[in-house]
Specification:
single chain; mainly alpha; about 0% strand
């Protein structure tokens, strides 16, 4: 699907349009400079051990390139997340969850104490329904 989208086939203009256009532009620039650019699917993270690419490609080299790309993408993501609004949102969610659980436990403890107190309060006959 990614290869088809980069090639311009069957891609919704609303689905990662800017990213796809940047990849297409980079690919065109490389081709214009005389580079032979081909898109190959490479299994991720050691999956499909029996997979072999076309004869002109070394599977270990392709897996190493794929791993390097994964590492670089992960580092980029961590850099972009550091100090981001999303990171702050996740931190606020965690703090809110902790506060909510503490509040529920406190309310339950208060209810238990009230229950114990009410059980020990003598009932006046005047308070009973007739």
């Amino acid at each position: 699907a990614a290869q088809a989208a980069i090639g311009g086939n069957g891609c919704s203009p609303f689905s990662l349009g800017l990213l796809l256009q940047a990849v297409r532009d980079l690919r065109k620039d490389l081709v214009d400079r005389g580079c032979d650019v081909s898109l190959l699917w490479v299994p991720s993270h050691g999956k499909h051990q029996r997979w072999r690419p076309a004869a002109e490609h070394d599977p270990e080299e392709l897996r190493a390139l794929n791993h390097a790309a994964d590492v670089a993408a992960g580092e980029c993501m961590q850099t972009r997340l550091s100090g981001s609004l999303r990171e702050g949102w996740h931190a606020q969610c965690a703090a809110t969850l902790e506060w909510e659980l503490k509040t529920i436990r406190l309310a339950a403890a208060c209810a238990e104490q009230l229950h114990q107190h009410v059980r020990n309060v003598p009932v006046d006959d005047a308070e009973l329904p007739s």
